[in-house]
Amino acid sequence: MTVQPILLKGQWQKAQTLVTFQATDPASGELLPALFPVSNWSDCEAALVAADEAFQVMQQLPCERIAEFLERYAEEIESDREELVRLAHAETALPAATRLERVELPRTTGQLRAAAQCAREGSWRLPTIDTSAGLRSCFQPLGPVCVFGPNNFPFAFGSISGGDFAAALAAGNPVIAKANGCHPATTQRLAEAAERACRTTRMPPGAVQLLYRTRHVDGLRLVADPRIGATAYTGSRAAGLRLKAAADVAGKLIYLELSSINPVILLPGALRERPESIADEFASSCLLGAGQFCTNPGMVLMLESPQSATFIDLVCQRFRAAPLEPLLSKAVWSSLQASVTVLQRAGARVLVGGVPAGGPGFRFANTLFRVEGRTFLEAPERLQTEAFGNASLLVVASDLEQLLAILQRLEGNLTGSVYSDTGGADDADYERIAPLLRQRVGRLLNDKMPTGVAVSPAMNHGGPYPATGHPGFTAVGVPAALRRFAMLACYDQVRPARLPSWLQDPNPSGQTWRWIDGQWSQQDLVTPDVVSDL
């Protein structure tokens, strides 16, 4: 059986390995036929050499060229929509029409086009000019970027198509994509579209490259290599922290999205006012896509009361009645089972599910746990174990003071939600809760479940550890996402013709916002003529 090639320096080549792997159909549990290589270091080295060469060229490329590539790539993806959706559905079991075709693929092409606009317009660079000091600075490309894609978003977060990829390219960096082993054929198909777009727009060989899998030791070596500018990783906390340790020792940047339980707080007035609708929202959010979202509501906090008891009964009914969707892989299935065991041993009581489900493929019963606030405070770390999948933990506090104590023990999360009475009955409690929650989450929501991430310049898809490796950056939303893959470059008394276009007196695009002598401006900089008194 033929082993699929890797993409190196603009060419599809045979990998230097004898080790292969196959993806699995999560719905049936059966192996898919295509064989993919596990690359050794010689493939990584070849990718690094080509990426470094491409970076030297890309530093001199007009930003219009990079924007054209991103836009052309979006068009290539759209023209291959049918086959991409078919492959992704086969490898992930995610709904073909309602999820992959109508939601995730358009989001992916939208991200690429938004990144192209940022590359072209240039304000993301924050050009800054101080004429009195003779200083000018802006953000410039950092170097080759390695992107590790996750298992749950084959398009929108994919290593060769997602937000990290788009941001890194828009900032002017070549990308070495490391596919996720759950959907290698989908990633290969996307890489073929990217390679066609590269050729059409005359991007340098090595601007976009693809490896499917590496040995762990080579992955650690790759993120620490001197030629790498930065790495973006989305996946498990354990694997991400190993990569971070390797990158940190070498002084290399790495941006991590690791784990999040996304606490949802239901205040008493909200539960009195609309228990049925909140139960519907929570069950739909938690079980969407078998709960395999990084913003899945994995913990709900409430005060003990007849209303919270009613809410718990309503949610249990919905979890029992909801259909089971396949998990993405056997590894996800095993991880969920292990997390369930940890939560139970820490004192959580199973209300619904808690066991693997029968039938073909990788399925787990829709699962709800309950734990009292006192028990949570006795084992807060274990009871914050992420159960990635269709499971959530209900925490019932005895009173507001205990709820506040629980909030103080929460780890960092991507999101935190608060439901409150629309008439203001919960406002006093909200004023005490919100400051504690705010410092522990990247995105604070009111009266809304967290699942779903809008692609907006104002979005923060990030948060304190362990949600991410650094609380100051977002993986979604341009222009902010681009600056993860850039360095601040300062020019001191550099001659005008030698400056980057963004820092020269004429505004390079006519639209770029620049901070000139203490004011934002889109105008050309007019320097006064020097008049001789001789």
Rg result: 25 Å
Which CATH top level class of the largest domain fits?
Alpha Beta
What is the assembly state of the chains in this entry?
single chain
End-to-end distance, in Å? Answer: 84 Å
Features:
15 helices; Aldehyde Dehydrogenase, Chain A, domain 2; 22 strands; globular; seven-stranded mixed sheet; five-stranded mixed sheet; Aldehyde Dehydrogenase, Chain A, domain 1; 534 residues; disordered C terminus; alpha/beta
Secondary-structure map with pairings?
Elements lengths: L5 E3 L2 E3 L6 E2 L14 E4 L1 H18 L4 H17 L1 H12 L3 H26 L6 E3 L4 E7 L3 E4 L14 H8 L4 E4 L5 H18 L6 E4 L1 E2 L1 H8 L6 E5 L2 H13 L3 E5 L5 E4 L1 H6 L1 H13 L11 E5 L2 H16 L8 H16 L3 E4 L14 E6 H6 L12 E7 L2 H9 L4 E7 L7 H12 L2 E6 L39 E7 L21 E3 L2 E3 L13
Parallel strand pairs: 4-10, 5-21, 7-8, 7-11, 8-9, 11-12, 13-14, 13-18, 14-17, 16-17, 18-19
Antiparallel strand pairs: 1-2, 3-4, 5-6, 6-20, 15-16, 21-22
Helix pairs in contact: 2-4, 2-6, 3-4, 3-6, 4-5, 7-8, 10-11, 14-15
Quickly describe the structure.
The chain has 534 residues and is of the alpha/beta class.
Could you explain how this protein is built, in words?
The protein is of the alpha/beta class and 534 residues long. It folds into two domains: 42-258 and 475-482, Aldehyde Dehydrogenase, Chain A, domain 1 (3-Layer(aba) Sandwich), CATH 3.40.605; 263-446, Aldehyde Dehydrogenase, Chain A, domain 2, CATH 3.40.309. It has 15 helices and 22 strands. The strands form five sheets. Strands 15-16-17-14-13-18-19 form a seven-stranded mixed beta sheet, with helices on both faces. A hairpin with a 4-residue loop joins strand 5 and strand 6 (135-141). Helix 3 (81-92) crosses helix 4, helix 4 packs parallel to helix 5 (163-170) and helix 14 (400-408) runs parallel beside helix 15. The longest helix has 26 residues, at 96-121. The relative contact order is 0.13.
